[in-house]
Amino acid sequence: MKLNEFNIKIQYKLNEIRHREQQTIKTMARGAGVVFVGMIAARVLGYILRVLLKRHLGLDDFGLVSTGVVIMEIATMLSVMGLPQAIARFIAFHLSRKEYSKVAGTLKASFIIGLPCIILTSGLVYLFASVLANHVFQKPGLLYVIHRFWLLIPLLGITMLSSSVLRGLKQMFAMIFSQQIARNLFVLFCFVLLALAGFKLDSAIYGYIYGFIIMAAVSLLLVARAVPYKELFARKPAKMASILVTYSWPLVFSTILWFLIGRVDTLFLASFMTIDQAGIYNAVLPLAQFVTVTPQSFAMISMPLISGVFARGDESSLEPIYLTTSKWLLMFTLPVYLPIVIYAEPLLVKFFGSDCASGAVALRILSTGFFVNAVVGPATMTLSADARTRLILLNTLVSLLINVVCNITLIPLWGISGSATASALAVAGTHIIAAVQAYHLYGVVPFKKVFLRIIAVAATAVALVGVA
């Protein structure tokens, strides 16, 4: 009798675990679907913006604006110090445990730590604008851009913090709208209005500034509507500042790396080559980044969900979630990757004109690096969800070294293609290392044998195109 009761309890527990796994996978599918559609919309808007900027400004001014935006984005990434990842992780983690005072403490601490750093960084960029323009990049025309673009840093920083709160709350549509769609939509709208009014370079500069102001306001409004204040602040918020800093400081470097992929290339190209080469690369990069839409979609939703798995101590649910995510990544990334690789040159000519056709090889190389990133699964997100940020830092340092050394070595030899090779190696290297670590720590693998056959078929198709 006791044995039967024990068996019933075991069966009930197994059914409960399976149900939880299924619910987690369904939540991931729904959330990833929302993020995927949102990111596609954002990519399309961003691509339209770049096409119009290039055609309205010409390659030289387009290169100046692109370089200016990259400088501001890098400065913002430095100023937020890895807090966005920490905010999303700890809000999701403590919500799973219903530790509402710690969720409230995370919200409070994130803005108390983040805002002063963001403001300080924007001031430093303004003060050292002349050094950046005349000595670092040796482009005097960049000074005019930086003296106005420094305003983007606090606006983008506020948006990043707000979007991370929404991500932790699993408000995926609000998150993707505030950080991705709103940015490109409002910048595009403001730029077009100013261009129609007859402005040239200023149409791009102030289009970004006014667009970012609207974006930041929208992100704060969405957070104000999403946060359940009565529930979270019923008790005094827990002190979370030191915990956030301990978790996030290693992520400063890893976040910078992912942001630098492609952007460091722009900076090296602007320094070693002519500014129009940086402009061509900025035509190549967003097209290659369409390959990353699916991985980013699943990364944004998988990290909060996997954090919940670790919060409940339910690591038996990790393997099916990991394997299912990897399968979906391959299935949805391959149909995007193959057309870009096969039709690289016609796509560039179609959207950016014949003067960008020379970037076709770089486009194929970059797309391949991003594809490898997708097929190795959500390894880095799993490490992040388990608070192994120092391990991520180690991976980041290795990849950053690869990226910088390859850029310095290969750009003088191969130009844009050398820069693309550096980025591809850095992206692929980071995720391959993380996948090996995830296997040793959790016993999870990103694919089955059938996945390898699919990849082999795709590789054969790409090789045949290369020979032809």
What labels describe this entry?
468 residues, mainly alpha, 21 helices
As a percent range, the share of helical residues equals over 70%
Distance between the termini: 72 Å
Strand content: under 5%
Query: Averaging pLDDT over every residue, what do you get?
Result: 81
Encode the helix/strand succession as letters. Answer: HHHHHHHHHHHHHHHHHHHHH
Q: In this structure, how is the largest beta sheet organized?
A: none
Based on secondary structure, the structural category is mainly alpha
- Bulk shape: globular
- Radius of gyration, Cα only, in angstroms? 23 Å
Count of alpha and pi helical runs: 21
The total tally of domains equals 1
Q: Tell me the number of strands.
A: 0
Low-confidence stretches: none
Protein model, in words:
The protein has one domain. Helices cover about 85% and strands about 0% of the residues. It has helices spanning about 1-55, 60-80, 85-95, 100-125, 130-135, 140-150, 150-170, 170-195, 200-225, 230, 240-260, 265-270, 275-290, 295-310, 320-340, 345-350, 360-375, 380-385, 390-415, 415-440, 450-465. The N and C termini lie far apart (about 70 Å).
